[in-house]
Amino acid sequence: MDNILEGRIEKLIEPVWFIQPHFVEDKGISFNKIESQFGGSPYLQLNESLPVCASCDTPLDFIFQLDLSQWQGVKNFKFSFINLFYCWECMPLTPEFNGEKDPMKSLEIRTYRKATLEKYKPIEIPMESVTLTGDINFSEGELLPDYKDLEKIDEVLYSTINELSQKANLNEVEYWENLVEAACGTLDSYSFIGGYPQWINKPNIPECEVCAIPMKFVCQIDSHEEIDLIWGDKGCMYLFSCEKHNKNQKAIIQY
Ligand SMILES: [Zn+2]
Ligand SMILES: [Zn+2]
Is position 12 within any domain? Predict the structure, then answer.
């Protein structure tokens, strides 16, 4: 590989935190309230109550909370803690697959500048309403863009890859994926914070409804059967936030 290509690839490498969930029975109120976790009882602040589904009017299920305070990418945002609630009854998915339903109606993302014990409001979800529970192991790694986003991110690199793969008589996606693996190693998990979304279907980066600027990728959470988290037909959830308007987040689900 020539140096120019190597240099371009190196510039795009982003640090990520891979997420490995593992099942634990008790994620109730007795557990550390401001730790990253799947399900159980969420971190809420004093002025908050549990969110309700705007489609079916029942309480949304708590899916996960992530403490981003130690993640280097958090400097792009004005929050360091994030919660996600979702309705398993309505199962909202992306408009591209389900034109009728607005996924954001049956999904709520909450962000906090800082999660502190002083502001913590103890609230326990009854065990029979808890749909999943899990701890998280994080591992640090690196990532490059999905081939599907490469043209937008670096047009020169994209056309170079296409030329080289043709010369080598190889499929361009595989060619790119081999380069990614050589530079970053194998992905520890398809759930991670930071880096670039790894799309199941075509790229779908949402725009902020206030400033119309494409949102910044925060994390993607894959289906994990070991903790009973399955998006649609074993899909993946992608979470984005506007860098300017920190109240504006969106989730995309693909499967
Ligand atoms: Zn619902
Ligand atoms: Zn905005």
Answer: yes
Does residue 170 lie in a domain region?
yes
Here the CATH number for the domain that contains residue 142 is 2.30.320.10
CA of 218 to the centre of ligand 2 (A): 15
Q: How far is the CA of 53 from the centre of ligand 1 (A)?
A: 5
39 lies in a domain?
yes
For residues 185 and 215, give the distance between their C-alpha atoms in angstroms, rounded to a whole number: 27
CA of 249 from ligand 2 middle (Å) equals: 9
Cβ(140)–Cβ(17) below 8 Å:
yes
Cα–ligand 1 centroid distance for 200 (angstroms):
25
In a domain, 118, yes or no: yes
Number of domains observed in the structure of the chain:
1
* CA 63–ligand 1 middle distance (angstroms): 14
**What digits encode the pLDDT tens for the residues 113-167?**
999 999 999 888 888 888 899 999 999 999 999 999 999 999 999 999 999 999 9
Spacing, Cα 12 to ligand 2 middle (Å): 24
- Work out whether strand 37-39 and strand 133-143 pair parallel, antiparallel, or are unpaired: antiparallel
Range of the domain at 112: 3-248
pTM beyond 0.90, yes or no = yes
**Span from the CA of 17 to the centroid of ligand 2 (angstroms):** 25
